[in-house]
Amino acid sequence: MKEMEKMTWYVVVLLIISFASPARSDGSDHKYKGGDPVPLYANKVGPFHNPSETYRFFDLPFCTPDHVKEKKEALGEVLNGDRLVSAPYKLDFLHDKDSEIVCKKKLSKEEVSQFRSAVAKDYYFQMYYDDLPIWGFLGKVDKEGKSDPSEYKYYLFKHLHFEIFYNNDRVIEINARTDPNALVDITDDKEVDVDFMYSVKWKETKTHFNKRMEKYSQSSSLPHHLEIHWFSIINSCVTVLLLTGFLATILMRVLKNDFVKYAHDEEAADDQEETGWKYIHGDVFRYPSHKSLMAAALGSGTQLFTLTIFIFLLSLVGVFYPYNRGALFTALVVIYALTSGIAGYTAATFYCQLEGTNWVRNLILTGGLFCGPLFLTFCFLNSVAIAYSATAALPFGTIVVIFLIWALVTSPLLVLGGIAGKNSRAEFQAPCRTTKYPREIPPLPWYRGTLPQMAMAGFLPFSAIYIELYYIFASVWGHRIYTIYSILFIVFIILIIVTAFITVALTYFQLAAEDHEWWWRAFLCGGSTGLFIYGYCLYYYYARSDMSGFMQTSFFFGYMACICYGFFLMLGTVGFRAALFFVRHIYRSIKCE
Q1: Prediction pTM value
Q2: CA angle 462, 465, 469 (to 5 degrees)
């Protein structure tokens, strides 16, 4: 087992080193001479408020170059919805242009209607020039002094100004702006003659090439943004310290009194009846129901926790710089595949400790517990994207690549990990012997039920992270750039600590009430924060965003359901491991007959 685990970590470390290589952190590394062609690719267009609903650039009737060349994209770029093709503009190095005509085009009624619909939905375009992103809007809607939407005027921008900064032989920065005076009225369904034009102005700058991407990360590092982030951290820390300190003080004092009491009881008459959590020492380590499912959940949760840690390591060493197209998706796919051995080992080990016999079925359950719902969600959402002809629809070749990764990497590592876990021969360490017949659980008040306990357990960790959630959502489901990964990592550590502590506290109160069925309760309480995050999704969608339409709505709630389910498994594992450690500790500290 140790050899297999060492090999897995070795591969992942190599992955981190390759991702973190300096060559990847600066984008394109091309040097140019005057008049050299610099690559300009048109990427996609789509409604500004619907980040998942994007289409190919030439799905709209723009001027097309003589030879449209598609750029070969990496796996992560395709998953990100990028579809780069050669743009109709020629921006040669150090070559200024003034009102250069791209093409003269007579727009038909259908094309005018197509552009008008795009302008009405606030369509933007995205391009990449020497791997630097360019954004812009297609047109504008004149609503001034008009209350009736039928009176609105729709205009298409026909002149694009490029301002490019260079340092010696390198491209440093590019800005694109539209000419507010060069407009085409597309309000009515009639044929329109349009002269699409562009201008290019080159300017020298002293900014070093290695710092050219800093411009895009500065927005999230502005002083007022940092103040909000640090206020979030301080607020979370104070809240957590007060509440956990309060609970810890009470818990330690109660436990100390319990230990003193039980030690005194042991010296007293033997026929004295036991009460509290010591009373159920013969049942507390009775194996839970559905132990194969529990082992699979712990295996999947451990894998997702490991995946999250490695994603944070990659982010902290600077891999996920702004507009590093698809780097996050590539890392998620590859690291998840490489860490599947951890899931197999953890699940098989725990399952065999619980005296399970059908370890093959347990491995199949482990492999499908997270991937199964994710695959079903993907199938539905990919069908929606295909129906919309959106770039979010994955090509058949990409689906084949992902399947091969799953079949040739994920599944073999899962099986190897499972075999290693099965052969580890580890025994479940229970300080107390389990009785043959379980004790009856006394009637408990309603607030000690599973759902009220989950609500209490999920609220405290969620309150520690909810301020930071807005910035993450605005980055993932919007156009805000998030680069303060160190603060996010601190928030994640706080989330883990609070989840572990609140689960331990609730487990103690459950045992003190002589309820010995704590295994699943600990897992559910730990993972309940994932349900709170999904509840926040509803709030964000309706109160903090302008997303609309069936495709964007289904993508948002579909993929967020998968992410929250992943959090549920990961935090449930953290909560259960903390509770198991705590229960073993307190029962090891007393004399169990």
Answers
A1: 0.90
A2: 110
